Each structure stands twice: as structure tokens, then as C-alpha cells.
Amino acid sequence: MTIAHHTLEVIGTIHSPYRQKFAIPRQPGLVTAATATIELHGAYAHPDCVRGLAEFSHIWVLFLFHQTIAGGWKPLVRPPRLGGDVKKGVFASRATYRPNGIGMSVLQLKQIESDSDGTRIIVQGADLVDGTPIIDIKPYLPYSDALPMATGGYADSRPQTELTTRFSDVAQAQLAQFAPAYPQLAELIDQVLRQDPRPAYKRSDLKNKTYGMNLFDLNIKWQVIGTENHVISITKDF
Ligand code: SAM
């Protein structure tokens, strides 16, 4: 029997600090200060569904690229890793525009909570936008999934930038103001900005440009001066 179509069911939703796609790290584990919560839905929230899962340090999370899925897919994509001007096959990439729009991330499992409100899985290092629909969760198996001899083609090593982060006096005062609600905020902003979220193909023509990104309900504005991310302000204004 062959199956040409199959309907997937969403089993949960992730709540992450990333309120829009811009500035989200391009793979999991790059921004460890990002904590997110997977809220399981309906029958999938029964504690039986996660029995034994807490024994694992990491999980595979499969999800839908719901913000780009309507855009379909093309055989060739331009991986940002290659500066955006080299084309690779969609199946040689981790692009969001792909057949079926399925994403997969290995995330560190911090905690599982089950109570009368349902079941929540707390994870670290996600690269998923807030509200992403989750379609499956599986334990990460080091004996099989970690392959020290594997090679990574055009993305063989962890992306490196030389960027450092400096908070203006105003931003430092705002960090202190938001610290009770977001204790890891400075670390989160630093780790996100060190990934250099600016579009690769435009970096050279965008000197002195002020960028903005949203984390939680905060708007962060910064400029890149030389190799320094200069955080100008952190406000609740969006
Ligand atoms: N680790 C996953 C994978 O390999 O399948 C995702 C890799 S993909 C290159 C990561 C990017 O997907 C993020 O930087 C963000 O811009 C984008 N993204 C995250 N959640 C998304 C969503 N729900 N819909 C569309 N794009 C999303």
C-alpha cells in the first residue's frame, strides 16, 4: 500500500521568547539562554504520553514551519550560511520553504510538568518562533543520533562571528527594570546578537543602520559598530 497524502495532527504549541522570525538563531543550541515551553494539547497532554521522557537529556522536536508553509517550496534554495548567493538543493538544506514544511530540532530537556492544567515540557536552546505547532516529540538517542565521524558539507562547523555586545547606559537601566520578569535577558540578547541576525547579503551596505527585534514583549534596538553590537534601548513599546 502506498500513501500519497496523510493528515498530521498538531500535538502541542511552543511558547518561546521569539515573537518574529527575524533574529531567531538558525539552528537549535546556539542560544542557550532561550528557555521555551511546549504545551501539549488534548489527549496528548495526558501524563502517560511523557512517561519515561524525563530520563533523557535531549529531545527531538518535530514541528511545522507555520509562518512560511503557505509559500510552498522550490528545488533550489540559497542557504544564509553561504552568504545568500549560492544555490543548493532544498534537500541539501534546512530551509523553512520545503515540501511539507516540517522542521526538526534537538533541544535540551529541562523539566516536565504535569498537573490539572495539562502537561508542559520545558526546553532550552530552541530555534522556533513563538506559537509554532508541534507535530511530534521523540527522545534523542546518543548511541544512534550522535555521529562523531559525520561531516557537515557546506555547514561543517558551528557558525562563528567576532561580534561582542555592549549595552548603552539607557539599555543597562532598562535591563535592570526588566530583570525581575526576565532574569536571563542580558544573556539572551547577547547570545542572539552574537549570531549576527542581519541578512548576510546586505551586511556591507547597512553600516549605521538601527535594527529592531522582539523578544518576549520587549523591543530591542541596536546598531553594529565595527565588531560590536551596541544595544541602544529595550522597551515595551510594541
Ligand atoms: N532546526 C530546524 C530544522 O533544521 O529543521 C529549523 C532550522 S530553520 C533554518 C531555523 C529558522 O526557522 C529560524 O531562524 C527562524 O527564522 C525560522 N522559523 C522558526 N520557527 C518558524 C516557524 N514556525 N515558521 C517559519 N519559520 C520559522
Automatic annotation (TrEMBL):
<dbReference type="InterPro" id="IPR036413">
    <property type="entry name" value="YaeB-like_sf"/>
</dbReference>
<keyword id="KW-0489">Methyltransferase</keyword>
<dbReference type="InterPro" id="IPR041369">
    <property type="entry name" value="TrmO_C"/>
</dbReference>
<dbReference type="Pfam" id="PF01980">
    <property type="entry name" value="TrmO_N"/>
</dbReference>
<dbReference type="InterPro" id="IPR036414">
    <property type="entry name" value="YaeB_N_sf"/>
</dbReference>
<dbReference type="InterPro" id="IPR023368">
    <property type="entry name" value="UPF0066_cons_site"/>
</dbReference>
<dbReference type="InterPro" id="IPR040372">
    <property type="entry name" value="YaeB-like"/>
</dbReference>
<dbReference type="InterPro" id="IPR023370">
    <property type="entry name" value="TrmO-like_N"/>
</dbReference>
<dbReference type="Pfam" id="PF18389">
    <property type="entry name" value="TrmO_C"/>
</dbReference>
<dbReference type="GO" id="GO:0089715">
    <property type="term" value="F:tRNA (L-threonylcarbamoyladenosine(37)-C2) methyltransferase activity"/>
</dbReference>
<keyword id="KW-0808">Transferase</keyword>
<dbReference type="GO" id="GO:0032259">
    <property type="term" value="P:methylation"/>
</dbReference>
<comment type="similarity">
    <text>Belongs to the tRNA methyltransferase O family.</text>
</comment>
<keyword id="KW-0949">S-adenosyl-L-methionine</keyword>
<protein>
    <submittedName>
        <fullName>tRNA (N6-threonylcarbamoyladenosine(37)-N6)-methyltransferase TrmO</fullName>
    </submittedName>
</protein>
<feature type="domain" description="TsaA-like">
    <location>
        <begin position="8"/>
        <end position="149"/>
    </location>
</feature>
